[in-house]
Amino acid sequence: MGQKHQIGGQAVIEGIMMRGPKSLAVAVRRADGRIATKISALSSWGDRWSVFKLPFFRGLAALVEALSLGVKTLLYSANESGAEEEEISEREMGLTVAVAFLIAVGLFMVLPVYLTRFLQTAIPHNAALNGIEFAIRMSLFVLYIVVISRADDVKRLFAYHGAEHKAVHAYEAGLDLTPENVQKQSTLHPRCGTSFILIVFMVSMLFFVWIGYDNFLIRVLSRLLLLPLIAGVSYEIVRLAGKSRSSLLRVFCLPGLALQKLTTREPDQGQIEVAVEALQAVLRKESPARETDHPPKEEGSVHHA
User: What DSSP character marks residue 5?
Assistant: First the structure.
């Protein structure tokens, strides 16, 4: 099969985005049953500035790039899938994501700190209070996932998430990228964004234990200001987990894999086909001479599947 590229992905509205080192592909199931595919070249921060190839800095760059690309791919998928009657503009999608980000910060960062303050008098120990804050944050996060997963649209999104993981597993195992081979794979993957979020929570607990609980504003600001550093450390852990065979590291990542059982579902055949198309498209762009299971398609193509 030749040299393997590190492939990551993301479930989008009625589709999947697959990303390689130099390119990105989005495949979306349209209302008429056809699959629309968009392929783009990528130029990462690391390609432009060498500092972002260094440990920790590359994690920060990857996070910012993922957020930016996530907005663009969600916009494309929403418009191609026909999920909205009118096309959504980039500004509208950006505003929606910004509001969602602020809500997430309030719910998973500010609120746990606020609730923990009521225990300061009874438990005057930073380590214990920090552990309680972590427990509150995790409880809110799991409750949030459980609640939103009841919606039909989110169930489909989680199924596409599972299809994305299955396709990447098949590729990493060196299998032919047929729907049959992909369907047999696991819906859980150590490099998943869900695992990344949990590791961010766990790493933040180690950082925040050194910060006192005397001033509420300082506690909140410390959580926000240290987030880039925490994200960089967490990225390195997830990156290492995807390559390492260390038993200790795998044990550390088990909670993240368990949490993925809430954010992934078993996909149907049609969703697997979309995942295969997205992965094949990005591999064609990464290695033009590489033999694939499908003939080349032009960027922005629509085809029957």
Answer: P
Q: Which of 182, 206, 238 is nearest to 16 (CA)?
A: 182
Instruction: Kindly report the pTM of this predicted structure.
Output: 0.85
Question: Token digits for 75?
Answer: 């916009």
Cα dihedral 42→44→50→53 (10° resolution): -120
DSSP 8-state assignment for residue 187:
S
Task: Kindly report, residue by residue over 64-109, the tens digit of the pLDDT.
Answer: 888 888 888 988 998 898 766 677 777 888 888 889 889 998 999 8
Task: Measure the CA–CA gap between 254 and 232, rounded to whole angstroms.
Answer: 20
Cα distances from 246 to residues 37, 46, 227, in angstroms, run 38, 27, 27
Looking at this protein, which amino acid is placed at residue 116? T
Domain ranges within the chain, ordered by starting residue: 8-303
CA distances from 154 to 149, 201, 207 (A): 5, 23, 33
For helices 193-208 and 247-263, the axis angle rounded to 10 degrees is 120
* Across 70-74, 116-120, 295-299, least confident range: 295-299
Measure the CA–CA gap between 168 and 7, rounded to whole angstroms.
Answer: 7
Question: Residue 305's CB: how many other CB atoms inside 10 A?
Answer: 15
Taking 50 as the threshold, does the pLDDT of residue 48 lie above it? yes
Q: In what order do the strands lie in the sheet with 23-29?
A: 8-12, 15-19, 23-29, 35-41, 302-303
Residue 246's SS3 state is: coil
Neighbours of 196 (CB within 10 A): 23
Beta bridge pairs of residue 25? 18, 39
Share of the chain residues as helix, strand and coil, in percent rounded to the nearest 5: 60, 10, 30
User: Residues in the chain, how many?
Assistant: 305
